[in-house]
Predict the structure.
Amino acid sequence: MTKPVATPSSVDLRQRMIEDMDMRRFSRETRRNYLRDVGRFARFLGRSPDTATAEDIRQFQIAQHDAGMPVPTMNSIVSALRFLFTITLDRPDLARRLVRAKHPRNLPIVLSQNEVARLLDATTSLKHRAALSVAYGAGLRVAEVAALKVSDIDSERMLLRIERGKGGRYRNAMLSNDLLIMLRAWWKAGHQQGVMHKAGWLFPGQQVTKPISTRQLHRVVVEAARVAGITKHVGPHTLRHSFATHLLEDGTDVRVIQVLLGHTKLETTALYTKVATRMVRRVTSPLDKVMALMEAKAAPGP
């Protein structure tokens, strides 16, 4: 007798989605967020999401809008549900019903190089200083910093291997001489403390078998900023923003920065041109040239 083919309704939908995300090497944070957002939709339905209709999706998004859900949160839920319907349930017809809301992007908060120096100097341990130095010195996302392993340091090619970047993509990040020196100092100190192993995490958490959490790194940045007297609203991603902006101000081509950041779209990277203040200050206003001509004309002859 032929065995019946299992349908999504007859299996654990949550487990199927986890397996689909694992196959695509999604980060732990992305997996958690997608499961949370699909859970929101399931609670709205009051039944399994695999029974959803186009009208259910429409009513769900209307309810989100009417409840005053922030646009970024609404769009995050759209991403999670599109994955569920397109990949796990193979229902692209439903995924097309999801509407992504448009919203103006806020300009990123950027620290000056002096502020970055004060922030790093205000950290209370070599591990934390090294972790924040990686975030700034290589322009990594906080989840990418937390996921680094000792074996990801390629001192021969002066690169950091990012195995699970956004969307599960691989890329190489830059490794400067000063950053390598700091990481070697942390390796030596961590090895003496018994928390560093060649096959282990570069920044282990309280349990050495697990990496430092992104929440812990966020708390480290906030506390260091407070101690340093920095009043800007900062987090780990502020260091990534500052990395990109400072490179742009120093004349690095925006397309090179795009590769270093792992952006898929150039327009995402181009946002930093709006906050690169040193570039603005280097530009000579046409008014200055006009005033110089007027002064030269008004100057008495010999």
